[in-house]
Amino acid sequence: MTTTHWQDRSVIVTGGTRGIGRGIAELFARRGTSVLLTGRTQSVATEVARQVVGATGGRVSGMGVDLRDPQAIEDMAAEAEERHGHLDVLCSNAGIFPEKPLGEMTAADVDEVLAVNLRGTILAARACVPAMRRAGRGRIVLTSSITGPTTGYTGWSHYGASKAGQLGFLRGAALEPAPHAITVNAVLPGNVRTEGLAEPGEPYLRRTAASIPLGRLGETADIAHAVPFLASDEAAFITGQTLTVDGGQTLPESLDAFTPAPTS
Q1: What is the model's pTM?
Q2: Rounded to whole angstroms, how far apart are CA atoms 92 and 69?
Q3: Which of 56, 15, 70 is nearest to 38 (CA)?
Q4: Which residues partner with 189 through β-bridges?
Q5: pLDDT block averages, 10 residues each, the chain of length 264
Q6: Which of 2, 58, 79, 164 has a C-alpha 20 to 30 A away from that of 258?
Q7: Which residues are catalytic?
């Protein structure tokens, strides 16, 4: 039976300084994996890496990477391979979600979201595949969303387009490196309690939790635990697939679905 030896693996987690990305980085660190987490600035990435090391005792370092810059992304892949000796896993998690109604949205607003969320994902995968081929295996796990691929939300149409685009990318991208034992899959989180979700306030959070059959918002750990499975040896025969982690949020047809059916 295949068993993943996490202490022999190397992972990049983009957007690893907060929210879901930090949860993913911490989980890998606890398993003994060598982790390179990235953030927008070197100072923040370095500080968060220090905190994660303190919390987990793991092997974690930070790197400032602007995902709008193709050369910075290439440097990220090279740095991970140099620091760890090899590169096995890319968790392409970084994303931005500024709210902007369609009527107020500018071309610059669209370009910024697509540059980070979609173009950054594509370029990160492209940059990491050569190192994975040298390692003899690889796992690329994208953090997409239910918003866009499955649902919609006012003010986040450009965000939804970027997340749906990620899934279009993964299906084609999964084919090309497959002969080299490299898989490409995605996790689709529902509403997760992160720094960004706190901004709309408690009334919004309560309404959102009420729409989830399990009765609560997701936690970063709920998403993080799905990622190592897709990055594991045990998932070697899974590629081009998505895993929704949303507490059942996308199941109800309407609020009436929460009302028990009559028994007689």
Answers
A1: 0.94
A2: 15
A3: 15
A4: 245
A5: 86 97 98 97 98 98 98 98 98 96 97 98 98 97 97 95 98 97 98 76 83 93 97 97 96 81 59
A6: 164
A7: 159
